[in-house]
Amino acid sequence: MSLTGQAFYYTMIVATLLGIAATMLLWGRVRGVIALRGLQRIAMLLICQLCAIAVTMTWVNDHFGLYASWSDLLGTGGSGHLVMSGPPPQTADFSRAVGGTQSTYFRGPASRLAGRCTSGRRRSTARRHTSTFTSR
Predict the structure, then answer these.
(1) What span, in angstroms and rounded, lies between the C-alpha atoms of 90 and 94?
(2) Where is this region: Disordered (predicted)?
């Protein structure tokens, strides 16, 4: 099942709804001493919360494209698939930008994400040694 597919998203929604329904049905049927009943009820609530978080994270991933596949999410595969375009890892060619700052695009060697970095002297002396990073 694809990480970015609608089938996975709807499966997570159904799992969340089933978890809530099971918690409601089993809440009064929990047996054992008071401490054991409390732990069982906490476990049921945690399962509901984890399912809700999974649905939210699946939605975020679908809309913002954070991970393209399961191997991308788990960090396995090593297929060399580039997530974002940009220069080869660990290279940066600086160029002069507006206001005397320097700007470059670079790629992280582990994450393979690319971004633009701007640094240099600014007009304000309070922010003289700062740099900014913006993802492309």
Answers:
(1) 13
(2) 114-136
